[in-house]
Specification:
- It is built from 9 helices and 22 strands.
- It is α+β, with helices and mostly antiparallel strands and 409 residues long.
- Strands 3, 5, 6, 7, 10, 12 and 13 form a 7-stranded antiparallel β-sheet that branches. Strands 1, 4, 8, 9 and 15 form a 5-stranded antiparallel β-sheet that branches.
- Helix 3 crosses helix 9, helix 5 packs antiparallel against helix 7 and helix 6 packs parallel to helix 7.
- The protein is globular and about 55 Å long.
């Protein structure tokens, strides 16, 4: 009888604990959110002839969203053989390839300093406690062991990277390093955030999103300018902004890098914490069609571009992403690209983006940059001079044209 009473009391206590836990306030679990990313491209190791074996590669990135835990994604997606590192470190970046004293920390991969990434694969580091502020500059140092013949890289880094022979992972300053403007092997950085409203937006684009003509090491691509505007709002939710622009990229055909449909799963769906997609592509499909038509070659029509955009929308919605369409900006005067047929295609695609209701929302970049007196051209103040790419004022105007309400949870 005493045993029965004791069991009964224990059951009552257990039920009481369950009831207390059920009504206790819940602390949200931290969520991984992408704060920086870039789209990988293939490059033969012989193209730049950099002495990568047993060298330290220090690369600078400018994050969007801060956090207190980070993890790095490395990529060997285009390599045909394994990619090996002796070690990897991160630190807050100082000027000219230096690191801020006291901030350097080693990364681990499965608890080990070294890591080998198989051909065609990507690899996440172990989570690392690291105090990273919004819009911080981060130095990523990689001590390279073996690299494949085909490197995974991004040519439009707009930031200076440094290469020094030997192990300089923890060196506060590099001595006699080679400087260049490319990223190799780094593909993304994630942070943890406790807010249930936190999320990331992927910007799928071409050279205008990649930042052609912006100032090296000044982080003034239109996506960077948008981050500044967004975070200046007192009610802004935590938002990671992931720039997946590739110069010369097309929606339907390979150019500089895989076409947008081919890279969609890797550059959009595989991104961490993504909730929104903004699509700003098409001008290269239109512009390259000019010479293709002259040569009697196959080229993308407005109908082809529209059908491809519809594919992107459908694939994104399968993952519950909110999809935003951006109109294609003017380019009359860019004689290497412009034609009356191409302009007709641009207008047709823009009409579909604005008025057919397929996108969840629209950002009218065309209206933001065009010359009111000649809508086929960029306004003079927004024209870099090549009549295709925006000036710095134009990039700022693009950022201002993105309504903050688009990313309201």
């Amino acid at each position: 009888m005493m045993n029965i009473c004791r069991v009964t009391r224990n059951v009552e206590r257990l039920l009481m604990v369950v009831a207390i836990l059920a009504f206790a306030p819940r602390v949200p679990a931290a969520t991984w959110i992408g704060t920086w990313a870039t789209s990988p491209l293939a490059e033969p190791v012989t193209k730049e002839n950099l002495p990568l074996h047993d060298a330290t590669l220090r690369q600078i990135i400018h994050v969007s969203l801060g956090g207190d835990t980070v993890r790095l994604r490395l990529s060997n997606v285009f390599g045909h053989s394994p990619l090996s590192f002796y070690g990897a470190h991160i630190a807050l970046a100082g000027p000219d390839g230096t690191i801020v004293p006291g901030t350097d920390q080693p990364l681990r991969f499965g608890g080990q300093a070294h890591v080998t990434i198989p051909a065609g694969a990507a690899y996440l580091s172990d989570p690392l406690a690291f105090d990273l502020a919004d819009q911080a500059d981060l130095a990523i140092s990689l001590h390279l062991a073996e690299v494949p013949e085909i490197l995974t890289m991004h040519g439009g880094s707009r930031t200076t990277s440094y290469l020094q022979s030997g192990d300089a992972l923890a060196a506060e300053a590099l001595d006699g390093a080679t400087a260049f403007t490319r990223w190799y092997f780094i593909n993304g950085l994630d942070v943890t955030h406790a807010s249930a409203d936190a999320g990331a937006v992927v910007i799928l684009g071409d050279s205008i999103t990649d930042g052609y003509g912006t100032t090296t090491d000044h982080n003034n691509r239109w996506t960077d300018e948008f981050v500044r505007l967004w975070q200046a709002r007192p009610d802004a939710a935590p938002l990671g902004v992931l720039n997946h622009g590739i110069g010369g990229n097309r929606i339907l055909r390979d150019g500089l890098g895989p076409n947008a449909l081919a890279r969609f799963d890797r550059d959009v769906l595989a991104q961490t914490g993504v909730r929104w997609l903004l699509v700003f592509e098409g001008i290269n499909d239109i512009g390259t069609a000019r010479d293709a038509r002259k040569q009697g070659k196959d080229s993308a029509t407005a109908a082809d571009i529209i059908a491809a955009l519809d594919q992107i929308i459908a694939r994104a919605r399968n993952r519950d992403l909110r999809v935003i369409g951006a109109t294609i900006t003017p380019y009359a005067g860019a004689d290497f690209y412009w034609s009356t047929d191409g302009e007709a295609d641009r207008l047709a695609v823009n009409e579909w983006i604005r008025n057919r209701g397929r996108f969840d929302a629209v950002v009218d970049f065309d209206a933001a940059l065009r010359d009111p007196a000649d809508p086929s051209r960029l306004a003079a103040e927004y024209d870099s001079g090549d009549h295709l790419h925006p000036s710095l004022a134009g990039y700022q105007r693009l950022a201002e044209a993105v309504a903050p309400t688009l990313f309201t949870p």
